[in-house]
Specification:
Elements (H helix, E strand, L loop, with lengths): L1 E7 L2 E7 L4 H16 L9 H28 L11 H31 L16 H28 L1
Antiparallel strand pairs: 1-2
Helix pairs in contact: 1-2, 3-4
InterPro entries: Cell_div_ZapA-like, Cell_div_ZapA-like_sf
Organism: Erythrobacter neustonensis
Protein name: Cell division protein ZapA
Length: 161
């Protein structure tokens, strides 16, 4: 069991709470202190009354939030999205397939180049036959980025269906 000291208005209150709940209790105390501060100069002479007013502010906010939640729950479900054009989906699927084929071909070319390279060359080409690794990597990255963009567009269409 832990204790937390909360400062609300001119007083401090020591509150017992479970281990690990200290931060949560402090956050709740800060909410009460905020509502207490809203009383400003309209504070009652008795501290208990001021705390009741602060609690009433919070209860009012809770009541309003519950009403909004009930309205949301009672609202009819959102209309179903209009039918998605099957041709658009097919076009995106074809574009993704083409990009995947390009990517596979580029990977195969890179693998073939690596197989024909001299064994002592770590970068896939003999000293007299050098492969532009940076250009190959850039091309692979471009193909992958384009494939991801098409996949994202297809997912967006599918999600709206």
């Amino acid at each position: 069991m832990s204790t937390v000291t909360l400062s609300i208005g001119p007083k401090s209150y020591t509150i017992a709470c479970g281990d690990g709940e200290e931060a949560h209790v402090r956050a709740l105390g800060a909410m009460i202190a905020e509502k207490y501060a809203k009383l400003g100069t309209a504070r009652a002479p008795l501290e208990a009354q001021n705390l009741v007013f602060a609690a009433l502010f919070m209860a009012d906010e809770l009541d309003q939030a519950r009403k909004r939640l009930a309205e949301i729950d009672a609202a009819p479900p959102a209309p179903v999205a209009e039918a998605v054009d099957p041709e658009a989906i097919t076009a995106l699927q074809n574009a993704i397939a083409a990009l995947e084929a390009d990517l596979a071909a580029a990977r195969d070319a890179a693998a073939a180049a690596a197989e024909t390279a001299a064994p002592s060359d770590l970068f896939g080409g003999a000293d007299d036959q050098e492969i532009d690794g940076e250009a190959l990597a850039a091309r692979l990255e471009a193909i992958a980025a384009e494939a991801e963009a098409h996949a994202a567009a297809l997912e967006a269409i599918a999600a709206s269906a």
